[in-house]
Amino acid sequence: MWLGSLAASSSDITLFPYAQQVNEGLGDPFTAEDVYAGVLWGAVQAINAGVTTVADWAHNLGSDADIDANLRALHDSGIRARLYFGGKASAGGDYSRYEAQTRHLQAAHAARRQDDGRIALGLALRGPSMATPAENEYEFALARELGLPISLHAGMAGLPGTVDQLGRQDLLGPDVNYVHANEFTEQEWKQVAESGGTVSATPTVDMTMGLGTHPAVGAALEHGVPVGLGADTVAYGPSDLFAEMRLALAAERSRTNAQPINRGEMPAELRHGHLDMLDLATRGGARVLGFADQVGEIAVGRQADLITLDLSTPHLDSFNNPVLAAFLSAGPRDVDTVIVGGRILKRRGTLTNDLLQRARREVRSSRARIRGRSL
């Protein structure tokens, strides 16, 4: 979410150059004020696009002031979130303070009681690709001591063996969420399924950044692993789950159709459909975040997190299936109303309670500082 202020700041490069260009080149000098502005603007982007709930993979927090700013921005925005604390995951990071900072975050979170449970915590761990086995054991033990769910990046091209390594260290479990998972082996999928782990797929970034040949959606479903859709970084792609649903379906159809097409045949059937992807963007997201008993569907006992779409525009005026029309053609511009926990955050296509104006002032000031430091 801190990358909200850096939207469209990167393209056409792979993961490690991206990390150097964005996370380190632009993110390392962030002040607490920049963190606040980025997270608030990222929340505005999400709410405007009809996203009520986010997994905030917070990995540019080098100080207690940064942590406080990130938490305050989520509270001020009105969005629902799981804040996965990842310290400062760059060359400028100091993981010797990770436990102390985690405990500071817990205390700061406990001191805020006005969010009606909208904000929950977790740990964004480095995992075997970025940390030693001893560091992994320590960080996993910390998460489990504190009862915090875990998220880590895994299964990306060129960085194999994450799940195998965690399995050898006896660190797998139902509290682990794997982001991307594009290149898991069959053995790794079995381990994730047997341990009760979950997967977050981010189709746009997965495919355009070269993290894998296709998103992990189909493989996760085939192995019975809960999977949800995400947008990853708005520095590289859109904050738009409508687009992610469509791309996920196209990528999965391409993957499963490849064999008959390569034989010169037309596929006899098409696997998965728009309702499957809609499920992953709603209930799937709630499942992988541990919010399935709160949000993700309209049901008695769930929180009032709802969006409505304006279906009166020509591109959404369907023959007889408004849900299919929304899946095929809707985007952020069609989101009429956004409600989180019964509170209206967007109405008649406009963000309410001066949120947009306040966030825009913050992000413009922050961007001026960032550009000044980048010259």
UniProtKB/TrEMBL annotation:
Top-rank taxon, per record: Bacteria
PANTHER family in alphabetical order: AMIDOHYDROLASE-RELATED DOMAIN-CONTAINING PROTEIN, AMINOHYDROLASE SSNA-RELATED
Species: Streptomyces spinosisporus
Name of this chain's protein: Amidohydrolase family protein
A family per Pfam: Amidohydro_1
Lineage of source species: Bacteria, Bacillati, Actinomycetota, Actinomycetes, Kitasatosporales
Keyword Hydrolase among UniProt keywords: yes
Span of domain Amidohydrolase-related: 31-344
Keywords: Hydrolase
